Amino acid sequence: MARTILVVDDEESILQSLNGILSDEGFEVICAGSGIEALERIEEIIPDLVLLDIWMPDMDGVETLVKIKENYPMVQVLMMSGHGTIETAVRATKLGAYDFIEKPLSLEKVLLSINNALEFYRLEEEVNLLKAKDRDKYRITGTSRAIREVREQIKIVAPTNAWVLISGENGTGKELVARTIHGMSKRSHKPMIEVNCAAIPEELIESELFGHEKGAFTGAASMKKGKFDLAHEGTLFLDEIGDMSLKAQSKTLRILQEQRFERVGGSRTIHVDVRVIAATNKDLEAEIEKGTFRDDLYFRLNVIPIRVPPLRERVEDIPELINEFLLEISVSTNLDQKEFSEESIELLKRYHWPGNVRELKNLVERMVIMTPDTVIGAKHIPPPYNLESSLKDDLESSLMAGSYKEAKARFEKAFIEKKLREFKGNISQTAEAIGIERSNLHKKIKAYGLNNVKG
Ligand SMILES: Nc1ncnc2c1ncn2[C@@H]1O[C@H](COP(=O)(O)OP(=O)(O)OP(=O)(O)O)[C@@H](O)[C@H]1O
Ligand SMILES: [Mg+2]
Fold it and tell me: In terms of domains, do 153 and 300 share one?
């Protein structure tokens, strides 16, 4: 794929001639007339290289350089210095510019510097790849059998190019799994580009995924790369894939099959090499039944399925997760690390965690802030996490009910919940113990929303 160069100069004639020359050499060229415009373009297209004029009104080249390096350290910058700005150019190389070229520009010198810079960029990428290999940045904490299996699967699929579909409830760690796979893959020196399918309005999905050419529609003042482009040689993470509209699904399927596409308003075919990892909290097979998800897209994506289990199926991981989060908090706040008492941990293990690991992480943060003591005990844990006291609350509230019917219902709910927990969610055993029909208990569990109570 063509390398992208962003040329920044306030002189229109320079932009035009460089655009012509570099396009002829096979580069994709984008122009910007000021430092501010350059920063906007960079965000949209992430070029491989920037040719940056030093003397410009408003924001000068050096200031622009500093901002670019701050946000995109991997993008190579070549300064163009006019008469009297050589000293500044030398200073710019100390601030991260790769090199500088003197004006008036000589064609040979420009091309030579560009090729050197791009070669340097490639080598730097390789070094980063080596570093990434032994980095352990994304830690999937836990020693339960369920989470060990997930880690095993990641280890096997990561180095391959296979597509992965990650499923699991909210907050189970789907994104963490996706990042770990990318981080352990051969593509880790390139970015993982994330697309939140639920957040993109239907009419923007094409331009968002495939980009658009300049003038494609009103308001498209310049070319914009799509997510597929940006993920070239890297990974595309399609998050919340179950929320994509049917129309967007069919477009995505086509690109996924062909690995090439045209930008909106363009006729050039762009080839990309992208690995796709998708995630969903929906049951896609059920969505297919309902007719809201395409089965062909499902089969294409679901080459390797990874299911991240809900936290209530691996409560033995809770102590380790709590410690991990406590450590993170103490490092980021520079305060002494607090701890949870054994009793409080036992309480948390009995909760059913509908928001999974994210909910646990939020609770740990909240407890660290709210508890003045170094040891967080059972008495500090608020309802609904504190089962005993939340049961007490339920009972008290049944006494406060306005009608007999209401009071009975509140009491019944608290009672059934307590008994279900005693029998670890086993309906037959609970029904027998409290002396009602199994089918009757089943109805009540449904009516009171106690389906997730597991003990
Ligand atoms: N096994 C784990 N070890 C350490 N941290 C974890 C683990 N699982 C999840 N987390 C943390 O919990 C939070 C939620 O995880 P993540 O965003 O990956 O979940 P998700 O499944 O993508 O959630 P959602 O469905 O809401 O998008 C993150 O802060 C993540 O770092
Ligand atoms: Mg997520």
Answer: yes
Has residue 454 been placed in a domain? no
- Ligand 1 centroid–CA 56 distance in Å is 45
Q: Is the CB of 427 under 6 A from ligand 1?
A: no
pLDDT in tens, 335-390: 888 999 999 999 999 888 999 999 999 999 999 998 989 999 988 998 888 876 66
Q: What is the pTM of this model?
A: 0.69
Kind plus residue range of the DSSP H or E element containing 21? helix 12-24
User: Cα 139 to the chain's mean position, in Å?
Assistant: 15
Q: What would you report as the CA-atom Rg of the chain, rounded to the nearest whole angstrom?
A: 29
Q: Whose CA is nearest to atom 29 of ligand 1?
A: 358
Q: Residues 245, 251, 253, CA angle at the centre, nearest 5°?
A: 100
CA 53 to chain centre: 35
On whether residue 140 sits in a domain, the answer given is no
State the distance from the centre of ligand 1 to the C-alpha of 177, rounded, in angstroms.
8
Looking only at the bridges linking them, the beta strands covering 275-280 and 164-167 are parallel
The answer on pLDDT for 131 being more than 90 is: no
* Contact 314 CB / ligand 1 (< 6 Å): no
User: Six-digit token pair at 400?
Assistant: 């406060």
Pair 164, 287 in one domain: yes
Q: Indicate the top mutation candidate among 137, 148, 172, 313 to test ligand 1's pocket, ranked by most ligand atoms within 8 A of CB.
A: 172
